Amino acid sequence: MTATAPAVAAEWQEWVARNLALGVPPETLTDVLLDAGVDAAAARAEIEAALAHPYLRACRSLAESYGWAEALLETYGELRAADGGPVLERRHSLASGEFFERYYFGHRPVVLRGLTDDWPARRWTLAGLRERFGTVPVEVMTGRDADAEHGWRYDAHRTTMPFGDYLTMVETGGRTNDYYLVPRNEAWQRPGLAAMRAEVLPPAGLVPADVAAEDMTLLLGPAGTVTPLHHDNMNILLCQVVGRKHVRLVPSWDRHRVYPRGGTFSHVDASSPDLGRFPDYADATVLEAVLEPGEALFIPVGWWHWVRALDVSITVSFHRFTHPASAVYLRPGVDDA
Fold this sequence. Notes:
Pfam families: Cupin_8. By secondary structure, this protein is α+β, with helices and mostly antiparallel strands.
């Protein structure tokens, strides 16, 4: 017997189960499904079937057992709000001691100015990089526009090509999110790019002078590239070398409001949040900044961030710091759906 296709799409079935497990009233879910064009009878039948399924009962039990964690996050958020709330400060010539005390160990993001003023990399151009390093093979994520889940399906999008060919694509292709040289590559570890890496000077007092290539990443792409809302499992110093980037940040303690998936990603499109499907995101704190060339953004471990390139953009990031206790790494026990 041929199985009948579900009357409600699989992504909506998952959404129904998740929200029922979180305690959202069935009537609210029905209204959202109807607004999305789902047949009324099919919507009610789907919710009734989910409510009766033993899997949902198990999910609800698990959700209740994690209630204490959300309560703790809420309490921490209230304490931070009473202390002035999360803000994104901009600082120039910040001493390393204050950086670690106030921002690194204070779990606060900050935009830093003056860290890259002496970098030879600040003189990079696409034409110059193509002339010097054009034959070096690099790994690029391609075909991103055709896959809404490219952020966590990166293995399906890896393409190796000469660096020069990619730079020409960036230079001539206009605004697009279809291809991007992202951190999930080993560009800095390729011998052919050693001279390029040498033009990036680790910020004194913050990053070890002998920082290893594997503790740095290179991001290079056209205007229009978007990194979906996600968090990193370590502290990051994001240094903007060429072009501008628009960044949105959500505090780590708002994790339960961003609908996590895949461990480090979010179901929410932070560029245009669907508050009908993800209503708790409306209560998340969102900080914004446009990073100019020469600015650096410290992103604390666990802080969620969404990034869009406003221009052709080159970014270098570090995830190793000088403080002896700075090797902090978040190891989540179980990935979210």
